[in-house]
Amino acid sequence: MASAAPQHPPVRLTVLSGPSGVGKGTVVAEVRRRHPEVWVSVSATTRPPRPGEVDGVHYHFVSDAEFDRLIADDGLLEWAEYAGNRYGTPAAPVRERLAAGAPALLEIELQGARQVRARDTDAQLVFLAPPSWGELVSRLAGRGSEPAAVQERRLAIAQAELDAAGEFDVVVVNDDVVRAADELVGLLTAPSSGSLRSGGASE
């Protein structure tokens, strides 16, 4: 009988989500800066690039037709519409990463996190929360680039997203970017187990 192939340590997909304005992108950027070995999925989006954004680095910027093709070909692990644009996670790179025995991190919105949980019950869902509601309101208002009606809509969405925190396995409070980034990396590298702990960081 042939000997068994070497087994990779158990790994799982880790999903980071949270309300708009909570600082998901800032925390992930800090993870990349301090822990360059961590692999972060690059999402596809139909929205146009913002100043300074690079295709393939910040997002894969695609047309509506290209996005439709990805959906039709089951090429997205999840996708969602947010603020009039569509965002999705290309499935192939994530599957390749996990098959190689290495952890993968997704930074996505709540709709997408729910889709991932439905498709992969072993995925670890991490909710990034603000220190307080007042702090989140201040961060969203501080952007200053949107009309009041749009900001009000964003706050309503953010409140609904905060209410969904109980659906997640772990809540990380973004009261300090460096600490939150280190806590997230600790969760990424923690051994996978049958039941996930809730409401705290791995030791």
Automatic annotation (TrEMBL):
Stretches assigned to the Guanylate kinase-like domain: 11-189
Subcellular location: Cytoplasm
Keywords: ATP-binding, Cytoplasm, Kinase, Nucleotide-binding, Transferase
Principal subcellular localization: cytoplasm
KW NAD (keyword) present: no
One GO MF term attached to the UniProt entry: GMP kinase activity
Protein name from the UniProt record: Guanylate kinase
Gene behind this protein: gmk
